[in-house]
């Protein structure tokens, strides 16, 4: 089984190469010196809140710009509800990071989907910016993958089904996600996915109108060739990243990875895909369709696959699944003292699961 082009397993975002240029509008650069963040507007709630409305419980994440806390709401209709509170210090935020924060707020305020994280509140003080997100006790796909090495095809089908529905929803609203990777796929306590981190996303990109964006951003190992080459990209770039994620979940490896950014980029542009032979023929077929270097030939772009039947699981139909009848996967939940017991999963919501996956052209 030739695996010459496979990289090391379980590369966290900090081990991969993450990069972005200045924010863009089409191919025009924004004058970032004049940009300021204003996120006083609330998301899906109308209640006026401030930091005193939340009791800090634990630090559950930390970065160079701030921390993520597990908090409990102490008043209002949602009193007692647990949230993840992202607190960003304005003093250490670069202009592009302020733009990312505002973009994430804007996107999460206007979209609502069962497989995308919910933003409940957004506000700021003189020195800090606050995003109050739903708290997801299942952790992320990277953590689960690092423990299990790789998933079965049935497991991967379950995750990819929900991710595909989320991507299709974003694309239908003119949003290119541009940051699909295991660390950004969170899991709730029932094992269902939530896409998170929309700071690198791009709005107002519609394939039907031929819209393109030209910024070079994301984690290099997950970038599509047209992003690497800066020839302009649209929603098809997300389906390449979808293929990278699928490959990684099935094999525990990245399809294109080297120690240097330059070599990784060259592999994405030119290297032959090493296909592990333990994968089923239908999974291999789907991966080849996703790893088309010409965006117009890639699955998710071609007109003849704009709608996939829910009943077929053969050939390229490996992706064409109905979620009806698929049970969430068991997982170890994040647990902190005082959180209370997790709610056991008892069934599948028919309005979410009895659906067809549409991939827009």
From TrEMBL:
EC number: 2.7.11.1
GO molecular function list: ATP binding; protein serine/threonine kinase activity
Domain Protein kinase intervals: 54-311
Catalytic activity, as annotated: L-seryl-[protein] + ATP = O-phospho-L-seryl-[protein] + ADP + H(+); L-threonyl-[protein] + ATP = O-phospho-L-threonyl-[protein] + ADP + H(+)
Record key words, sorted: ATP-binding, Kinase, Nucleotide-binding, Phosphoprotein, Serine/threonine-protein kinase, Transferase
Keyword Repressor: no
Pfam families recorded: Pkinase
Family classification: Belongs to the protein kinase superfamily. AGC Ser/Thr protein kinase family. S6 kinase subfamily.
Protein name: non-specific serine/threonine protein kinase
Annotated organism of origin: Schistosoma margrebowiei
């Amino acid at each position: 089984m030739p695996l010459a082009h496979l990289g090391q397993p379980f590369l966290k975002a900090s081990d991969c190469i993450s990069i972005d240029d200045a924010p863009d509008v089409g191919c025009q650069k924004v004058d970032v010196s004049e940009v300021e963040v204003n996120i006083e507007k609330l998301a899906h709630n109308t209640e006026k809140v401030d930091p005193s409305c939340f009791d800090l419980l634990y630090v559950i994440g930390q970065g160079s710009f701030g921390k993520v806390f597990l908090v409990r709401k102490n008043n209002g209709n949602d009193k007692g509800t647990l949230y993840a509170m992202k607190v960003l210090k304005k003093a250490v935020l670069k202009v592009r990071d302020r733009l990312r924060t505002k973009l994430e707020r804007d996107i999460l305020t206007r979209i609502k989907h069962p497989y995308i994280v919910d933003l409940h509140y957004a506000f700021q003080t003189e020195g800090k910016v606050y995003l109050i997100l739903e708290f997801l006790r299942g952790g992320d796909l990277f953590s689960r993958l690092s423990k299990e090495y790789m998933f079965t095809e049935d497991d991967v089908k379950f995750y990819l089904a929900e991710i595909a529905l989320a991507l299709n929803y974003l694309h239908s609203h003119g949003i290119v996600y541009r940051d699909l990777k295991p660390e950004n796929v969170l899991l709730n306590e029932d094992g269902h996915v939530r896409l998170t981190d929309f700071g690198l996303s791009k709005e107002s990109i519609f394939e039907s109108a031929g819209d393109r964006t030209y910024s070079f951003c994301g984690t290099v190992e997950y970038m599509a060739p047209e992003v690497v080459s800066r020839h302009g990209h649209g929603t098809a770039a997300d389906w390449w990243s979808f293929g990278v994620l699928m490959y990684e979940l099935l094999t525990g490896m990245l399809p294109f990875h080297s120690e240097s950014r330059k070599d990784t980029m060259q592999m994405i542009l030119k290297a032959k895909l090493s296909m592990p032979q333990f994968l089923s023929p239908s999974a291999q077929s789907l991966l080849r369709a996703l790893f088309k270097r010409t965006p117009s030939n890639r699955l998710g772009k071609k007109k003849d696959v704009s709608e996939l039947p829910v009943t077929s699981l053969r050939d390229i139909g490996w992706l064409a699944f109905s979620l009806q009848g698929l049970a969430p996967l068991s997982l170890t939940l994040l647990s902190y003292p005082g959180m209370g017991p997790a709610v056991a999963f008892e069934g599948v919501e028919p309005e979410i699961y009895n659906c067809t996956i549409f991939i827009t052209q």
